[in-house]
Write a structure and sequence with these properties.
Number of strands of chain A: 30
Number of helices of chain B: 13
Strand content of chain B: 15-25%
Structural class of chain A: alpha+beta
Strand content of chain A: 15-25%
Low-confidence stretches of chain B: 1-24
Number of helices of chain A: 28
Mean pLDDT of chain B: 90
Low-confidence stretches of chain A: none
Structural class of chain B: alpha/beta
Radius of gyration of chain B: 20 Å
Oligomer: heterodimer
Shape of chain B: globular
Mean pLDDT of chain A: 84
Chain lengths: 888, 394
């Protein structure tokens, strides 16, 4: 039930004080208006009189000036001169002349003779009247003194006149030949001004008294003077004007009455209006209040009718707008809540201090925590463990600088389990930039990591022996070498190659061969000095790292190693006695790096094989020659790269099912005049060592692009691939190189493929990623070479625009074996899952081809089809395939 | 010797009295008044008249004066060319005891204005230069106004005829002053031109002081006039002659002029224009070649008085000759009347005996009905030289 509306006090609040204030205000204003009316009336009258005075004076001065000018002109008229020298008959022309001048009633001209007697007067003028004018003191004085003059005159029963007397002078005669008198009728001259009847007016010229004498009494009056000057006459004029004070009284009284009435009327009107306004407004406010209360009570969410257009309506409209906005906000919030609740990814919201304020169901399910466990806890609860501190710092730093962080981390579940997760963390900012907290979108990548782990395990282990594979071995050796350098320990690298192992395979079968290898691996593991590292380098080759620090001399180790074989090994096919040939290199005496140690050991082993199979040889002087050759290679390599003295051979890639050539892999070959043939292993390793690999890559790329048109002409659908070292991406040289080619020869990059290794991908920088994207944009395809032997993150794979995986030859070689076949199948499935093509490298037998086809791999390359050949040989060859007869 | 009349102090005023005999000096003088426009600087007529009067007074007083030994004396008043002044001067002069008559000067309008007062005051008023017909044609009887001068009625007629006879001008152009003088001349032209086969093809009226006549001359040419009949005094005439002289010779119409211009220094005002324009001026008298004894006596007196070398240098000769003759006629009249009363003098003038004057032989000069002493027979024409000499033209 809604509470009743408040009593309408608003009405009293408005109308009461408003009316009181208005009463006082109107009373004051009315009084002020009355006072101002009186003052204004007085000032108006004074100003008006002054104005009238000025008008009269101006008019009179103008009239006198005008008349003085006219009589001045007349005084020099030859006609008048003639008249004054003429006798009988002069009236014929003088009378019209005078009458012309006397038109209008404002003034009359008279011509007097040299003695001031009337010579000619206006025709209508009685002679006596003219004579009286001639006898006026002002006229007689002027004639007596033979000068111009002026004066005031009031004719009998007439209005005041201003007299202007002007001599008539002739240049040929002395003295005045006559006089012209202008009698200006003052009332007529002022008639144009239409002076009001209650205005009293007096005029004077010169020093004469005002005519008529000014009235006295209650008058608003004043006198003003000026001088009229024209034609040598200068006439001072004075004007006095007065008006009775009571003239404006009626107006003032009427104004006061109107002011009082308007004051009373205003109060009454405002009072009535204020009451009406207050009542109406109170009612509208009541309605608005009622609506608000309903809204608050949730009874109503509809908009309210605004009513008339005013501020209150604006309030109502604003309320309506708020309602609409609130509704929209509520809808948005509901949607957001649903998204938050239903999202497959975990979502975690923290406050600016990092305390959890919200977590969605997906996150709770992922971590096993309850909402209660998390709310209020620091966000780090989910991932805190000693190894994650660095990630925590990275997150904090990235949030601080860019407001977001994304990456992978590991969360700790409620039961302590580790949960690998991909996290996208963002700051929550208001429009003003205020930090409200952070939101993290968390994806459980446990399954992905699991597959990754399996792959890594597969990648690190030799599938036959269970020993670390060579790559893994190399990594561990690198670590061991660093430790040895730090601790000055002495190590030995042992190369062990089974003698005549091929005959075992050939005679007893590959399974027996595998048994031999596995047994030997176990034997070596057991018999090599403690702390050794062991791996199978290839088929029947093993390589071991042994600590020889505790041995007095190398003879002890020699003795121990010499006892490793012969060894009798029982296989399903019978007992096999195997011997092995060993080559040993020493750290740090022979070499200080893994590669050098391998070479030395390899060289020593080869030396031993050459001496006697089953023997053991320590690397000695012969190693120096090997090293010399390497230096020779390095020194010649720079020049060779500069002159691009490399040949490119192409190994065809075929459709395993049809044998159709579908691509080529370009492989570098080098024949030096001094060194002879230099193997790719030698010069590529040397080029990487001396950081010339990018030049080598570009050299090969240049040749490939030159050869490509010929290849494509022969095999239009074939792709052409070349290997690119990661170094070539460090300064974007490959991208620049291929961009230039693309600009120079449009379409040249079509079908071109760049092969990178898994390791390149896994260690790539963002720059490599960008360049690879750009290369793909140019039409270049990207393939991963030797896939399976390196380490790569599947998530990285998905981030790169890869087109093809090339299965490493080591897996292909054993594809008929169960373990290898699993790996190959796994890679093929992965490629399919990622929608990638897959090519098998090192296909050397028909069995391998068949096995691959069965697994779904339809592309391959290897000696089974063709070796790498020069371009001319490729173009000259009719066929490379070596397919079963039924497929051919 | 000069006597100042107190009533006219503000005017130029001079009185000259010639004393010719001691006994005459002892008796009350008899006065002859001369009212003329002395103060107009270019006007030579007053002085010429005065010389004629004084020459006659010298002769009369030398013979013992009049009325048994009363000396004749001259009273002069300056009317400045203003009729009002002339009238006032006449009133002033009339009040002088012993005044027997007033000689009026060159300006006809002044004289016309004075006639009414002369008749009212019964003072003989004799025009010795004014030619307007109205001077002696007044309807008053008896009239106290006389004239010993040219009369427009026959003077202007003579000018018309002269132009026709000399210049074969049957189409004449009149240039007249807008005064009683001009109106008098115009009346003659209107009345008599047709009688002589002459057409006045254009009449231009000018006012006093006007000096620009280009429009009038252009109108004369436009009207195909063959000569100009000019009625003017020296100032207006000088303007007209100058502007006429500036026209191309073919457009310079010959001029036959009234004689007012010989009562002033036209030769000084017009200068070289005089030689460019063919102008003949009407006269009633010339000292040149004049063999009349009175004329010779007068010439001698003037040459002596004015320190002149020859008679052709005597300015305004008609003024002197008319005044000389009129002074003798007045002396005869006063002696005949034996009184200085105006009415007696008038009657005596109307009944004078014959008199051999400088201009002519008056036999008699006036009658009760004829107050004009000269006739068309005295008319002659002259040309004005650069020095102002008036050379008669046959």
């Amino acid at each position: 039930m809604l509470p009743p509306p408040s009593p309408p006090r608003f009405k009293e609040r408005i109308s009461g004080p408003l009316v009181r204030i208005l009463r006082v205000y109107v009373a004051l204003i009315t009084s002020l208006v009355m006072g101002l009316t009186v003052v204004a009336a007085y000032l108006y009258q004074t100003s008006e009189i002054g104005h009238q005075r000025q008008k009269v004076l101006t008019r009179l001065v103008a009239e006198i000036t005008s008349q003085a000018g006219e009589i001045g002109a007349l005084a020099t008229s030859p006609l008048l001169w003639t008249g004054l020298t003429d006798s009988q008959g002069r009236e014929v022309y003088l009378a019209p002349l005078l009458e012309r001048f006397n038109r209008g009633g404002q003034r009359r001209f008279y011509v007097l003779d040299y003695r001031g007697r009337v010579f000619i007067a206006p025709q209508a003028e009685p002679p006596a009247a003219a004579a009286m004018l001639a006898a006026d003191p002002a006229v007689t004085a002027a004639v007596r003194d033979a000068r111009d003059g002026y004066g005031m005159r009031v004719p009998e029963n007439g209005a005041p006149q201003v007299l202007l007397i002007h001599r008539i002078l002739n240049p040929n005669m002395e003295g005045a030949v006559g006089y012209i008198v202008a009698a200006i009728d003052v009332p007529s001259a002022l008639s144009l001004l239409r002076l009001e009847s209650d205005i009293a007016l007096s005029v004077a010229v010169g020093e004469s008294p005002l005519v008529p004498a000014p009235q006295r009494g209650w008058m608003i009056a004043g006198e003003i003077g000026a001088t009229a000057a024209a034609s040598e006459l200068s006439v001072p004029v004075r004007v006095w004007i007065g008006r009775p004070v009571y003239s404006g009284a009626l107006f003032v009284a009427a104004a006061l009455l109107v002011a009082v009435f308007l004051g009373w009327w205003t109060i009454e009107r405002v009072k009535a209006w204020a009451e009406r306004f207050a009542t109406t407004t109170t009612q509208r406010l009541d309605r608005l209040l009622l609506e608000c209360q309903k809204i608050l009570a949730g009874e109503r969410l509809e908009t309210v009718e605004p009513g008339p257009d005013d501020e209150l309506s604006q309030v109502t409209s604003a309320l309506n707008a708020m309602l609409v906005k609130q509704r929209q906000f509520t809808d948005d919030l509901r949607t957001t809540s649903l998204v938050f609740a239903m999202a497959a990814e975990g979502i975690l919201v923290t406050d600016p201090q990092g305390r959890i304020v919200e977590a969605n169901a997906a996150l709770l399910a992922m971590t096993g925590y309850t909402r209660a466990d998390l709310l209020g806890q620091h966000g780090g609860t989910l991932y805190r463990n000693t190894t994650q501190r660095e990630i925590g710092r990275q997150m904090a730093k990235a949030l601080e600088t860019s407001g977001r962080w994304s990456g992978e981390t590991t969360f700790i579940g409620r039961s302590g389990q580790q949960i690998p997760a991909s996290v996208a963390l963002s700051r929550i900012l208001t429009e003003e930039g205020e930090i409200l907290g952070n939101v993290a979108v968390i994806t459980d990548i446990s399954r992905l990591k699991k597959v990754e782990h399996q792959l890594r395990e597969l990648a690190n282990r030799d599938s036959l022996t269970g020993l670390p594979n060579f790559r893994h071995m190399s990594e561990r050796v690198q670590t061991a070498l660093e430790e040895a350098r730090a601790t000055s320990r002495r190590l030995a690298v042992v190369f062990l190659d089974l003698d005549n192992f091929k005959s075992v395979n050939d005679d007893l079968g590959h399974d027996a061969g595998d048994t031999v290898v596995k047994t030997l691996a176990a034997h070596l593991t057991q018999r090599l000095p403690a702390g050794h590292l062991l791996c199978r380098r290839s088929g029947d080759e093993f390589i071991a790292l042994v600590d020889r620090s505790g041995l007095d001399d190398d003879a002890v180790l020699t003795k121990a190693l010499s006892r490793l074989t012969p060894l009798e090994i029982g296989t399903a096919a019978g007992v096999v006695t195997v011997t092995a040939t060993l080559g040993i290199s020493r750290f740090p005496e022979d070499a200080t790096d893994w590669h050098g140690l391998q070479i030395c050991a390899d060289v020593a082993m080869n030396e031993a094989k050459q001496e006697r199979r089953g023997s053991l040889v320590w690397y000695q002087d012969r190693i120096g020659r090997r090293l010399y050759r390497r230096r020779q290679i390095q020194s010649r390599l720079r020049e060779a790269i500069q002159s691009c003295a490399f040949d490119v051979h192409y190994q065809p890639e075929v459709d395993l099912r049809t044998g159709e050539v579908i691509g080529f892999e370009a492989l570098a070959r080098w024949h030096d005049a001094e060194l002879g043939d230099v193997s790719p292993a030698e010069f590529i390793a040397a080029a990487e060592e001396v950081r010339l690999i990018d030049g080598l890559t570009l050299c090969i790329a240049e040749k490939v692009l030159q050869d490509k048109p010929a290849l494509r002409a022969r095999y239009p659908q074939a792709s052409v691939a070349f290997n690119a070292s990661p170094q070539v991406f460090r300064r974007s040289r490959l991208l620049e190189f291929l961009s230039e080619w693309s600009l120079r020869s449009p379409g040249i990059l079509e079908g071109l493929e760049v092969e990178l290794t898994e390791t390149d991908i896994s260690r790539s920088s963002s720059s490599l990623h960008v360049q690879v994207q750009a290369l793909v944009g140019l039409g270049v395809r990207i393939a991963i070479d030797d896939f399976g032997t390196g380490y790569s993150s599947l998530s990285r794979l998905t981030q790169f625009p890869i087109s093809r995986l090339k299965i490493d030859r080591s897996f292909v070689e054993g594809v008929e074996r169960t373990r290898e076949s699993r790996i190959v199948r796994l890679i093929i499935d992965l490629a399919k899952a990622l929608d990638l093509e897959v090519t098998a490298e090192g296909v050397e037998t028909a069995e391998q081809r068949e096995a691959l086809v069965r697994m779904g791999c339809h592309r391959g390359q290897g000696w089974h089809f063709a070796r790498a050949m020069p371009l001319s040989a490729i173009l000259a060859s009719e066929k490379f395939t070596n397919l079963p007869s039924e497929a051919q | 010797m000069g006597v100042c009349l107190g009533r006219i102090q503000h005017c130029f005023f001079a009185i000259s009295v010639a004393v010719l005999a001691a006994h005459a000096q002892a008796k009350e003088p008899v006065y002859i008044g001369v009212d003329a426009a002395y103060s107009i600087k270019t006007n030579t007529a007053p002085k010429a008249i005065e010389r004629g009067v004084l020459a006659a007074i010298d002769e009369i007083n030398a013979r013992g004066g009049v009325l048994d030994g009363r000396p004749l004396r001259l009273l002069t008043t300056d009317n400045q060319g203003l009729p009002a002044r002339g009238r006032d001067n006449l009133i002033d002069l009339a009040a002088k005891p012993g005044l027997i008559g007033v000689l009026a000067g060159k300006f006809s309008p002044v004289t016309v204005e004075m006639t009414a007062e002369a008749n009212r005051l019964k003072v003989p008023l004799i025009s010795v230069w004014g030619s307007a017909d109205q001077i002696t044609d007044g309807a008053v009887n008896p009239s106290f106004v006389f004239r010993l001068s040219l009369k427009d009625r026959w003077g202007v007629e003579a000018m018309m005829v002269r132009a026709k006879s000399v210049h074969r001008a049957t189409r004449q152009c009149a240039i007249l002053p807008n005064t009683a003088w001009g109106r008098s001349a115009d009346a003659v032209l209107v009345a008599k031109a047709g009688r002589h086969g002459i057409s006045v093809v254009s009449t231009h009226w000018y006012n006093w002081g006007e000096t620009l006549f280009q429009d009038a001359l252009a109108e004369c040419v436009r009207a195909n006039a063959q000569s100009i009949l000019l009625v003017a005094n020296e100032r207006e005439a000088s303007g007209l002659l100058t502007q006429l002289g500036e026209l191309p010779p073919s457009a310079r119409l010959p001029v036959v002029a009234h004689w007012g211009l010989t009562g002033g220094v036209l030769h000084q005002l017009a200068g070289p224009a005089l030689e460019k324009v063919d102008m003949q001026v009407i006269q009633t008298f010339s000292f040149i070649g004049n063999t009349r004894p009175a004329a010779r006596r007068l010439a001698q007196w003037i040459l002596r008085d004015a320190q002149l070398a020859s008679v052709d240098q005597i300015p305004s000769p008609v003024g002197s000759a008319h005044a000389y003759d009129m002074t003798h006629l007045l002396a005869l009249a006063v002696n005949k009347a034996r009184s200085t009363r105006g009415d007696d003098i008038r009657k005596a003038l109307e009944n004078l005996p014959p008199f051999e004057g400088a201009v002519r032989r008056y036999a008699p000069a006036f009658t009760a009905t004829t107050h004009d002493a000269l006739t068309p027979r005295e008319v002659l024409f002259v040309r004005m030289q650069r020095g102002g000499e008036l050379i008669p033209v046959r």
